[in-house]
Amino acid sequence: MAELSFEKEDGELKALNESADSWTLTALTESYYRVSDKLDFHGLLSWSDFQGKGMGGQILMDPSYNPVNFLENTELTPGVKKKELYTLSGGMSYELNDRLSLGLSTFYQAGDMNKIKDPRFSNVWMDLDLNAGVRYVLSDFLTLGASLKWRNTLEQLKGQISGETGKQYFIDTDKGGFFGTVAELSGDHNYVSESNARPMNNNWYGGTIQAAIKDVYCGEFSFLMRNGYFGKKASASATYFEFSGMQLGYDGALDIPSGKNLHHAVLHAAFGTLSNNENIIKYNTPPGGNTVVVYGGQNHILDRSTVEASADYCWMHDAASGNPDFAAGARADFYSISQETVLYPYYRRQAYSHVEAELYTQKTFSAGRILICMDAAVCGYAGFGTKKDDGSYASSSSTSLKSFDSYLDKHFEFETAPRAGARVALSVILPCKGGITPYISLSDRFATLTGENEYLAGKTRNLAAVRLGCNF
Hints:
Layout: E1 2-10, E2 21-34, E3 39-55, E4 69-72, E5 79-95, E6 100-115, E7 120-137, E8 142-160, E9 170-174, E10 179-184, E11 198-213, E12 217-234, E13 237-258, E14 261-284, E15 292-317, E16 326-343, E17 346-367, E18 370-392, E19 401-403, H1 405-416, E20 419-429, E21 437-449, E22 460-471
Antiparallel strand pairs: 1-2, 1-22, 2-3, 3-5, 4-9, 5-6, 6-7, 7-8, 8-11, 9-10, 10-19, 11-12, 12-13, 13-14, 14-15, 15-16, 16-17, 17-18, 18-20, 20-21, 21-22
């Protein structure tokens, strides 16, 4: 298949790393190819281009992914951000015999993001994911599988001042719960450097086990370990943070036929932990020598745990035909985070959860050879939790620690404020001779807070999209 899509997103009901006025253009192609009865291949290639106006705040591409984040010290310096992502993935499977098969897959993504206004930031992203697995057909009833996984992500961050070079800019270092320290964007001895790119590196490794029962059920349990660091590992450059964690996950799907109809259910659940240690460092420059980094131990500063779960049920009418003419279902998503940040003698505890539920329906009409598919859904969202619970283990006169309350207020309201929304979509599909099937899809998704906004700049969010593609 090949597809070109365009998305336009607007509204102040947004996360700190989102834009109130943005667009994304994406092009992709994907293929499954059977070479022989034993050998199959899969490949995907995509490119996306994003541009958002009025962006500032969080600096890293995906703040929720990292144990430490960086923010612009003031909200008065927003600018345009541009981001490009390139993705290449592929896989193959080979049947050794009627019972045993081997498989390999790889996923590679590279990209960059730049802010086009002082203070300027340049982010370079890399994600490499490798998997190797085996499948064994135990009987006509049961199939088992297992795989090994290794993933490495690397985001390199650099700051820059290109306009008013005599003006001072500061960076907030969020060490958890919008609690941390402030440093000037200057030179090379702070967390964010003007002269060198600092890497945020994550390593994941682990495995999965799978089971499939005929065409009724398939499920997968996963276990992954995580370790990483922020900073450059070199004698003259510091490694500021070192972190570790784990993730347990389950994904399952159940199909129960009922005559010509089908009941389809999907369940996802995951539990993760993350801890972060900050290295105690100082720079030492001996007379006539080069500057070196001297380490003096570590401080344990963060413990975080997350829980996420989602369930989706769909009833499909006349599914035996391979093209259900009507479907209806319900979906629910849950997310919870609990964390404690300790910058001794002070601490901050934070915990919040949110849940989103959706009811949806889909109807397919035939007009000659043309298929017209209409989708509609309504959804609701609500959250709760503790924004911050601050305290200290001992008295101190330190004034270097900061609470970034303006960002905290906006983040917490976005994560927990109740809202309602709806989405609609219309797709036109034209099956042609030779297995060629062009299609076009138009969709819109709208959400609004059900109460008044206190910290967010607005109450609404809208995403409109058009997709043009072809299956062949």
